[in-house]
């Protein structure tokens, strides 16, 4: 008598969900069903300019290129095309993800893909997961992998003094970087961009091509931009907003910036799994069981839920190289769901990181160490015999991780020069 294959629901067909599908199709005999709420695979990288609703709901913007070189970004054994530059554009990454999907997932007998299909309800009943999605009949699964990303729900410090009054008075002058698409409306304006991450730095530079003045608010002034952009002024953290006649922003050092037309919050994102109706307290914290949250709890190796190892998460980590990491995490999931690796009831990895919103942040070299820890688990459980081998973080790969930051710093100098050229020509920001 043939044993029925185990079934897995994969929620999200971005880089994480696609990597999970490839790993399980290559290394197991499980049956997969992928649910993607957008009309195409690619997750956050899908940015259809012809579809305003899906475009404005994206963390992408019109003119965007990666901060990681294509050599370090690529999935295992699947390089970017030779004609793609070192730092691919947004659309080139999307094309790469579609190619990946077509090569490893699309048309596979054990994989069903539902596009334009949002998961509405997911709960554990008995030994099975029950999933309800738009336009589909309810289905039952043995395992669930949540790969819905963490670039969907913006974080804004709404408790900042004066913020709520400013938003009530002029809501369109306060926006999160998620809702930035192009620099056009900032022409001749005084703008403050809050946040020194990649998006904040990039958006500040783009706006400098048209704005009267750009202030760039950062937590650590020692890490403020040191490029030669004369339009951008680094400033400390904001302490207060005042929507008065002068539209004033007050900084922590007491300095006031008058006549601010726009505040752009490049302050990151929250985690949200609104469809999950089981294990709320254990996953999201007993004091914060309602979404969104700044971190998830009770995860083994930031992947598998320790209280019920039939539930796993892809790419919760931040400040990492996501594509190769997604495959490594997916290979670990195959071992857990196949009962080759036992998940301990508590996460020994957490240790001193057990508290705080930065638990998922793995700034180099922590990201390298984490990837090597995952590889060590795989190797000790016959991972070297699997069909899909994730990228190994050997010395060459680690060197690429460090080199890509230096390469991007040089690239940013070119982008600043480009912004100033366009400013002199009175043109909106674009890439050559």
Number of self-contained structural domains: 2
Helix and strand content put the structural class at alpha/beta
- Sheet with the most strands: spatial strand order: 3-2-1-7-20
Query: What is the highest CATH level, the class of the largest domain?
Result: Alpha Beta
Percent range for β-strand residues: 15-25%
Low-confidence runs (pLDDT<50, min 5 residues)? 348-353
CATH superfamily of the largest domain: FAD/NAD(P)-binding domain
- Compute the separation of the termini in Å: 62 Å
CATH architectural name of the largest domain: 3-Layer(bba) Sandwich
Indicate the mean pLDDT: 93
Could you state the order of secondary-structure elements as H and E? Answer: EHEHHHEEEEEEHEEHEEEEEEEHEEEHHH
Give the radius of gyration.
22 Å
Shape by Cα distribution: globular
Helical amount among residues, as a percent range? 25-40%
CATH topology of the largest domain: FAD/NAD(P)-binding domain
Protein name: LANO_0C08196g1_1
Keywords: FAD, Flavoprotein, NADP, Oxidoreductase
Organism: Lachancea nothofagi CBS 11611
GO molecular function: flavin adenine dinucleotide binding; N,N-dimethylaniline monooxygenase activity; NADP binding
């Amino acid at each position: 008598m043939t044993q029925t294959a185990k079934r897995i629901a994969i929620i999200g067909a971005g880089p994480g969900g696609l990597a999970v599908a490839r790993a399980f199709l290559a290394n197991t005999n499980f049956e997969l069903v992928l649910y993607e709420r957008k009309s195409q695979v690619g997750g956050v990288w899908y940015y259809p300019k012809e579809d305003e609703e899906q475009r404005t709901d994206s963390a992408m913007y019109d003119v965007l290129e990666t901060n990681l070189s294509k050599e370090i970004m690529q999935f295992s054994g699947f390089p970017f095309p030779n004609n793609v530059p070192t730092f691919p554009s947004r659309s080139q990454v999307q094309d790469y993800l579609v190619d990946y999907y077509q090569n490893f997932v699309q048309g596979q007998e054990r994989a069903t893909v539902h596009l334009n299909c949002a998961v509405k309800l997911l709960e554990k009943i008995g030994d099975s997961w029950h999933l309800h999605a738009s336009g589909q009949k309810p289905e039952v699964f043995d395992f669930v992998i949540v790969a819905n990303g963490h670039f969907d729900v913006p974080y804004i410090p709404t408790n900042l003094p004066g913020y709520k009054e400013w938003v009530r008075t002029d809501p369109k002058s306060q926006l999160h970087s998620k809702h930035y698409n192009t620099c056009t409306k900032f022409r001749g304006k005084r703008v403050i961009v809050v946040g020194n991450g990649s998006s904040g730095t990039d958006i500040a530079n783009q706006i400098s091509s048209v704005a009267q003045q750009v202030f760039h608010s950062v937590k650590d002034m020692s890490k403020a931009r040191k490029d030669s952009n004369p339009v951008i002024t680094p400033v400390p953290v904001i302490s207060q907003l005042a929507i008065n006649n002068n539209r004033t922003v007050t900084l922590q050092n007491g300095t006031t910036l008058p006549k601010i037309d726009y505040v752009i919050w490049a302050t990151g994102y929250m985690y949200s799994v609104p469809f999950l109706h089981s294990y709320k307290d254990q996953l999201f914290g007993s004091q914060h069981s309602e979404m969104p949250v700044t971190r998830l709890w009770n995860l083994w190796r930031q992947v598998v839920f320790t209280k019920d190892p039939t539930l796993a998460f892809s790419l919760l980590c931040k400040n990492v190289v996501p594509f190769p990491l997604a495959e490594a995490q997916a290979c670990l999931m195959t071992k857990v769901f196949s009962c080759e690796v036992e998940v301990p009831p508590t996460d020994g990895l957490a240790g001193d990181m057990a508290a705080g919103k930065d638990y998922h942040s793995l700034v180099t070299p922590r990201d390298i160490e984490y990837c090597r820890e995952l590889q060590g688990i795989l190797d000790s459980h016959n991972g070297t015999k699997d069909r899909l081998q994730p990228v190994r973080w050997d010395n060459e790969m680690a060197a690429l991780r460090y080199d890509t930051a230096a390469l991007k710093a040089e690239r940013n100098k070119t982008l600043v020069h480009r912004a100033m050229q366009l400013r002199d020509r009175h043109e909106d920001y674009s890439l050559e």
